[in-house]
């Protein structure tokens, strides 16, 4: 698998995958296609020597065809997506353009190069999706399985559900070799600051409120991003064409528990790391107070799904996926990474 095209490879999960794959497969060439929207950042992959960044849009079908042909690419991993639910509520058009039309553009290019005018060589189109396509669970409902009916509840999840269906259709109609993974809530390094964990961490450092939607008891399965990359690798190496695999972290937690753990990790970091109080004097922990005093309840967002949970039995049994981080260890790594990499996130916060 020497040449890979990674769409959205300068974003959060895609960027972490580029780092992971380059570490695990150092002889492979990685071409990253990213249009560098607000959530894409050159600096995320700047230190990966075997990654080449091509700035472009996945809706540019001709560009994708050119890359597949000229770079002799037989594996495409598709991360590029608009992904923030709040943004999809206020502006759904961008989600339709990128997540549906963009995915269709990639599929068309792959079909043209690998099937219609190709040599019949082995190939793989891997599509990254989300557990949000399955809808919302009640407190006692069984976890999402790959056969769970799609019931998306936001423009974001609806656009991802549509892209999942397109990928499946290109396999069954045209014979394109595809796989899909539906993941739970990712967290870890290089996460854009609008998301819950980095938002609350950076707010805590500057003494800003920690805004909690509703009663704070919405439940998510939390997946450390390196474990997600491990699941994608297992799918690429061992997954069967046309199959879907759920990738989860096995850490089902209410948002309030996550927020409390973020507060505790920040307090611990200030107690253990010399100089943090001088760097972040507005943080409650810099003044000997608890970060939890910043917690503030706000009006719940529209269409806020109550609970997601992933059943990853199929991924474990069929492709050998095993997550290696529990939430405690993954969160500690995440908090310490942000404290050590202010140069990465500070420009994003300023913008």
Automatic annotation (TrEMBL):
This enzyme's EC code(s): 4.2.1.46
Catalytic activity: dTDP-alpha-D-glucose = dTDP-4-dehydro-6-deoxy-alpha-D-glucose + H2O
One GO term of the biological process aspect: nucleotide-sugar metabolic process
Cofactors that this protein relies on: NAD(+)
Top-rank taxon: Bacteria
GO molecular-function terms, A-Z: dTDP-glucose 4,6-dehydratase activity
Pfam family, one: GDP_Man_Dehyd
InterPro entries: dTDP_Gluc_deHydtase, NAD(P)-bd_dom, NAD(P)-bd_dom_sf, Sc_DH/Rdtase_CS
Keywords for this protein: Lyase, NAD
Domain NAD(P)-binding as annotated: residue spans: 5-334
Similarity comment: family membership: Belongs to the NAD(P)-dependent epimerase/dehydratase family. dTDP-glucose dehydratase subfamily.
Name this protein carries in UniProt: dTDP-glucose 4,6-dehydratase
Species this protein is from: Novosphingobium subterraneum
């Amino acid at each position: 698998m020497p040449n890979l095209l990674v769409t959205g490879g300068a974003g959060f999960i895609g960027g972490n995958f580029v780092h992971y794959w380059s570490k695990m497969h150092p002889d492979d060439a990685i071409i990253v296609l990213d249009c560098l929207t607000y959530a894409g950042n050159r600096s995320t992959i700047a230190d990966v020597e075997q990654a080449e960044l091509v700035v472009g849009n996945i809706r540019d079908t001709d560009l994708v065809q050119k890359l597949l042909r000229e770079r002799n690419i037989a594996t495409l991993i598709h991360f590029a997506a608009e992904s923030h639910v709040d943004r999809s509520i206020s502006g759904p058009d961008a989600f339709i353009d990128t997540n549906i039309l963009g995915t269709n553009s990639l599929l068309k290019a792959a079909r043209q190069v690998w099937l219609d005018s190709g040599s019949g060589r082995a190939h793989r189109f891997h599509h990254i999706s989300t557990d949000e396509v399955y809808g919302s669970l009640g407190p006692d409902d069984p976890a999402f399985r790959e056969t769970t009916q799609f019931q998306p509840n936001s423009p974001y999840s609806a656009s991802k559900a549509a892209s999942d269906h397109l990928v499946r259709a290109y396999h069954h109609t045209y014979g394109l070799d595809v796989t899909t993974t539906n993941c739970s809530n990712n967290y870890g390094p290089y996460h854009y600051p609008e998301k819950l964990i980095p938002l609350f961490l950076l707010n805590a450092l500057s003494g800003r409120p920690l805004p909690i939607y509703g009663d704070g008891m919405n439940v998510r399965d939390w997946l450390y991003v390196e474990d997600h990359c491990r699941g994608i690798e297992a799918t690429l190496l061992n997954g069967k064409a046309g199959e879907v695999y759920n990738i989860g972290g096995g850490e089902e937690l209410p948002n309030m528990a996550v927020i409390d753990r973020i507060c505790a990790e920040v307090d611990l970091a200030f107690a253990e790391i010399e100089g943090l109080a001088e760097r972040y004097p507005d943080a409650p922990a810099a003044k000997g107070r608890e970060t939890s005093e910043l917690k503030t309840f706000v009006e719940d967002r529209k269409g806020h799904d109550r609970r997601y949970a992933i059943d990853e039995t199929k991924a474990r049994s069929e492709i050998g996926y095993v997550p290696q981080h529990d939430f405690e260890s993954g969160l500690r790594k995440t908090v310490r990474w942000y404290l050590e990499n202010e140069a990465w996130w500070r420009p994003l916060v300023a913008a």
